Amino acid sequence: MLAVPDDPNNRAMIADWLELMAVASSDRRVSFEALVSAIARGEEAQEEDIAEEDAAEDRLILDAQEEVSRRQGTVGDAYPFRIDEKGRNLVFERPRSGAGAVYLFCLFLSHAFERSIIIRKRDAPSVTNSVRDLFQACATVAAGGFVRGPAYSFGSPRPDHSSFLKALKQVYRSFGDGTPNSVPRPAAPRNVKDDGVDVIAWRRSPDGLPGTQYLVAQVASGADWVNKSVAADRKHFHKYWFERTPGSVPTDAMFTPFELEPEAPNSNASYRELLVDHMQDKCYRFGHLFYRDRIAFHFAEGSRLIEEGETQIEGYKKLPKIVKWVDNYSKRLRKA
């Protein structure tokens, strides 16, 4: 069911393969040697120089371990995998928190349409509108954790199924910054849904006055997220739907379940330098990029705020459905 990625230099895909294999394994672990063997089987020709071949295999293992360690360092205790004491295996551990389930949810979503590891379409997770709605819930809680304050799931359909203008007024009445139109514009679409804005979040200012951290985000669970950007939609959103736009300077953001996959043809830069440059490229296009690791990390922060009494972060009530979906697909992987 799981094929090893064609490109051994794609650290993101190699680490994803290890994670998926660990979930699928009956003993919840996969050896790094298994990765080497799987790639060797997929190569048409072996290296003629044995020493060079051994060095390449060692680099492959070290690169995979470095990427796993990077993810663990970002996600923290919620990361549902670990490298065993001898450094030989990646071990899957049952998620100890909602953030761990969210990490797995994003991992599985990443391969719903990507066919380099889960080859057969029938083996991939099915992404329905309800599943997309669950990912929007993940993004909303993560946004709340990031700003350390209120976060609203504004993308259609909204949790309370409210109309666009009604929801707009409710959110910005709570925000206390910006005045939406009291009635629809003459040429406004009759059934406008969300006008390209999926999540709205902000940090409460200490005096309750405008001028605070203000996040406006899109949520994209498909591979075409790279063709989207909230910037243009956010500008239209503020200019068209408000009598008085918020004074707080908006931060554009994109939430996606995928990992970072920088391309570096003939690059002599370190992997760290490559990631920095990759993220700068994405930030210029999308604003803040919340990819899989960051979503899990900030979801944990949002969960903590909710447990401490924060009542204005939406989406957390859908966590049981997320956990159930993750458990069901994990079982499918193990049965395949």
3D structure, described in words:
The chain is α+β, with helices and mostly antiparallel strands. The protein folds into two domains: 83 residues, no CATH class; 207 residues, no CATH class. It contains ten helices and ten strands. The longest helix is centred in the N-terminal third of the chain and has 26 residues.
Percentage beta strand: 5-15%
Average of per-residue pLDDT values: 92
Our Rg estimate from Cα atoms comes to 22 Å
Low-confidence stretches: none
Number of domains: 2
Largest sheet: 5 strands, mixed
Structural class assignment? alpha+beta
End-to-end Cα distance, whole Å, is 6 Å
The general outline is elongated
Q: How many individual helices?
A: 10
Q: How much helix, percentage-wise, in residues? A: 40-55%
Features:
2 domains; elongated; 336 residues; 10 helices
Please outline what is shown here.
By secondary structure, the protein is an alpha+beta fold. The chain contains ten helices and ten strands.
